[in-house]
Amino acid sequence: MNSFVKVRISPVEKEKLRQIAEKHGLSVSEVIRRAVFGLKIEDTPLRPVVPEINRQLYLELAKINQYLDEMSNTQLTELEPQWWRGLTILLAEVRLELLGLEGNSI
């Protein structure tokens, strides 16, 4: 079971901790642990900052992908399966790039 430690810090210090944690994709608790035990915070890979427009486009492409998937089962059966599969793979790749996750899977 974990224990809790209460520490008094100023509002400015609290905000600075929050910013460091957000920048490195860590919790505030993890930032404090690393500082106390002499571990480098910079060792953590930074999360990519994803612009809101990319998030919105990611969601729109998901809707298009869903629509095309539904159409493939009904209206577009005359298209070659390889072409269809290539299109869905391309959509997945573009969606990942929008979030800065190239090379990962959804």
Overall pLDDT metric: 80
Shape: elongated
> How many beta-strand runs?
0
Give the percentage of residues in beta strands: under 5%
Instruction: Note the total helix count.
Output: 4
Number of separate domains: 2
Can you write the helix and strand succession as a string?
A: HHHH
Relative helix content: 55-70%
Q: Helix/strand/pairing class, anyone?
A: mainly alpha
N-to-C span = 34 Å
> Low-confidence parts lasting 5 or more residues at pLDDT below 50?
none
- Rounded to an integer in angstroms, the radius of gyration calculated over CA atoms is 22 Å
Q: Please describe the biggest sheet, giving its number of strands, its sense, and whether it closes into a barrel.
A: none
Draw up the topology in text.
Layout: H1 11-24, H2 28-36, H3 52-72, H4 81-98
Helix pairs in contact: 1-2, 3-4
Task: Describe the 3D structure.
This protein has 2 domains: 9-47, no CATH class; 52-98. It is 58% helix and 0% strand. It has 4 helices and no strands. Helix 1 (11-24) packs across helix 2.
Quick recap:
The protein has helices at 11-24, 28-36, 52-72, 81-98. The protein is mostly helical. The protein has two domains: 9-47, no CATH class; 52-98.
